[in-house]
């Protein structure tokens, strides 16, 4: 006895039910993504990040700013692990400086052990031999063949229509991002501040 194929079985299901099943699967996937981000915002460890904003514009999605951070450029290890390539998943160890802002202490392909007061953020290599950002937020390309440009999923932030330009033209030293980092290293922007005052807060949903 020949069993019917999966395609034949699906074909016997009324179109309405197949449509509803597809919609439920799609909604379930979207809800899972939303809940994943909400979980990071609810229970992730907060870190303060200095920023350097750049201003692109997307007329279909409202205003948004592109944010660069001093931790976006990390010095690769001097010996041992090497061979970082664009697209590699990496883990960056963060520590807090005297002002409470996160600084990058190291990068590795495998999740490293950290000391008390440190935490790990997951990222992906965007380029190698990158120029670093100095204390003034300017690119320093004088040295650093081992430097890596790393993205953490914190590089864009949407704001109400018409507000992106105001943020972009604000002096970079006045802008601060508070990000939440989960136990697995995933990160999400939680708050944006100017001069230490709250400008935008990301809703959990």
Strands ordered across the widest β-sheet: 5-11-8-6-7
Structural class by sheet pairing and helices: alpha+beta
Order of helices and strands: HHEEEEEEEEEEEEHEEE
Average pLDDT confidence is 78
Largest sheet, in brief, is: 5 strands, antiparallel
Give the domain tally. 1
The end-to-end distance, rounded to whole angstroms, is 52 Å
Strand content: 35-45%
Number of helices, counting only DSSP H or I runs of 4 residues or more: 3
Radius of gyration: 21 Å
Shape: globular
Low-pLDDT parts are none
User: How much helix is in the residues?
Assistant: 10-25%
Would you report the number of β strands? 15
Give a quick summary of the entry.
With 205 residues, the protein is an alpha+beta fold. The protein is built from three helices and 15 strands.
């Amino acid at each position: 006895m020949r069993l019917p194929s999966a395609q034949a079985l699906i074909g016997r299901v009324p179109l309405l039910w197949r449509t509803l099943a597809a919609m439920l699967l799609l909604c379930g996937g979207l809800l899972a993504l939303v809940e994943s981000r909400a979980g990071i915002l609810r229970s992730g460890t907060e870190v303060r990040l200095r920023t350097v904003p750049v201003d692109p514009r997307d007329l279909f999605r409202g205003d948004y700013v592109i944010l660069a951070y001093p931790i976006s450029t990390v010095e690769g290890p001097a010996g041992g692990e090497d061979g970082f390539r664009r697209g590699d998943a990496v883990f960056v160890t963060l520590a807090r400086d005297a002002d409470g802002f996160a600084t990058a202490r190291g990068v590795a392909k495998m999740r490293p052990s950290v000391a008390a007061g440190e935490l790990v953020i997951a990222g992906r290599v965007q380029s190698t031999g990158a120029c670093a950002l100095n204390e003034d937020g300017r690119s320093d390309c004088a040295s650093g063949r081992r430097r890596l440009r790393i993205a953490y999923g914190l590089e864009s932030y949407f704001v109400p229509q018409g507000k992106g330009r105001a943020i972009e033209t604000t002096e970079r030293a006045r802008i601060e991002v508070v990000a939440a980092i989960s136990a697995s290293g995933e990160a999400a922007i939680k708050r944006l501040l100017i001069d230490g005052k709250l400008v935008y807060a990301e809703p959990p949903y």
